[in-house]
Amino acid sequence: MSSRVLVGLDGAVLDPDAPLLFADDLAAVRGDGIFETLLVRGRRVCTLDLHLARLTTSAEAMDLPAPDLPRWRTAVAAAVKAWDSDDEGVMRMSIGRGRESGGPPTGYVTVGPLADRVRSARRDGVSVVTLPRGLSIEAASSPWQLLGAKTLSYAINMAALRYAAGLGADDVVFVSSEGMVLEGPRSTVVAVTGQSLLTPPVEYGVLRGTTVSALFEVASGSGYECAYAPLRPADLIVADSVWLVSSVTLAARVRSLDGLARAERPGDDEIRTLVDLAVESI
What we know:
Helices cover 30% and strands 27% of the residues. It has helices at residues 26-29, 48-61, 69-83, 116-124, 155-166, 210-220, 233-238, 268-281; strands at residues 5-8, 13-14, 33-41, 44-45, 89-96, 106-113, 126-132, 171-175, 188-193, 196-199, 225-228, 241-246, 250-257, 260-261. The strands form 2 sheets. Strands 7, 8, 9, 10, 11, 12, 13 and 14 form an 8-stranded mixed sheet that branches. A 6-stranded antiparallel sheet has the order 2-1-6-5-3-4. β7 (126-132), α5 and β8 form a beta-alpha-beta unit. α6 packs across α8.
């Protein structure tokens, strides 16, 4: 097993330490591209169909050619085979617009090990601060904002995480200019109260979470009422529990919100189990 894997769209396994992009690739110089991050678990990729569907939606929003899904499936299968481990891995499917001097889009698949922060977030939860995103929920009506597309332009997200770290926090929940909960820089927000699971509407311009979609399907069959509904920070405070849900970290319990500690509750293990079941069965 290699500690890192790189596969081209022709299914060829490449040297992960050899150069791949040209210096004028627009993915590198402008962040002009899209990507998906997936969990490799038990020698298979979790929720692949949901990620391929979102990759297609993002490509449409970015005016990129529609992904050739059979080629992507071939590349994904080759990457999993090259990973060749029962250990969990992080897979990334990336598409860049191509070279500034002209040429086709650039596409490739990588697999690497889980970051230590992922295991810590799953085990211990995360401390979170709310930060203004500087956007209105009405911005979703402006398609050039690319809200809801998973683009390579992550500078603001990473800056928010660095700012939170400076405050002693692990993660962020973005809030709109109207004071509505949006999403995390790399996660979807889920509030749990009793048998109810709520997450902000995609109409607010938040990314449609693949893991939340899978979770809602499984949880609905287990007696939970699941809905996309408006949430304010106050709603998170009064909820039984709050989670940051994502494809790789899966379920990270918010153990403190803006400095307010939130205790573990008996039903929390059930939420973790539901998320695990969701990503493994869909």
